[in-house]
Design goal:
This protein has about 100 residues and is α+β, with helices and mostly antiparallel strands. It has a domain at about 1-65. Helices cover about 20% and strands about 25% of the residues. It contains three helices and four strands; from the N terminus they run E-E-H-E-E-H-H. The protein has helices spanning about 30-45, 75-80, 85, and strands spanning about 10, 25-30, 50-60, 65-70. A four-stranded antiparallel sheet has the order 2-1-4-3, with no helix packed on it. A hairpin with a 5-residue loop joins strand 3 (about 50-60) and strand 4 (about 65-70). Mean pLDDT is about 80; it is low at about 85-100.
Length: about 100
């Protein structure tokens, strides 16, 4: 298990040569539950699936400012209690514990 949740960073684009190029570039790694929720949104017919993003202004060891990012399941979707949300993530089959003994 990782010490930190999946995250990313947004740095100022130092190579920008025209106004149409991005001001910031970076990447965002997301947890499996976020990916699975995006897939569920697509299966539910959501045309533009979304995740929540959070960002923190930071400064790198090289004194370069950047934005630390974290993506998570949409708050509205976390608050919903649907049977699909309680299913085991895809690729990880749920295994019910064997209960051969009935206590009555």
């Amino acid at each position: 298990m990782a010490d930190y949740p999946a995250s990313g960073a947004f740095f100022t684009n130092d190579r920008k040569q025209s106004p149409t190029q991005p001001d910031y570039t970076g990447n965002l790694a997301v947890e499996h539950d976020v990916v699975h929720d995006l897939m569920r949104q697509i299966e539910e017919g959501v045309e533009h699936p979304k995740i929540d993003l959070a960002g923190w202004k930071k400064v790198s060891k090289n004194n370069r400012p950047f934005m630390s990012l974290r993506g998570s399941v949409l708050r509205d979707r976390r608050e919903q209690s649907t049977p699909m949300a309680r299913q085991a993530p895809m690729g990880k089959p749920s295994v019910a514990p064997a209960n051969d003994e009935i206590p009555f």
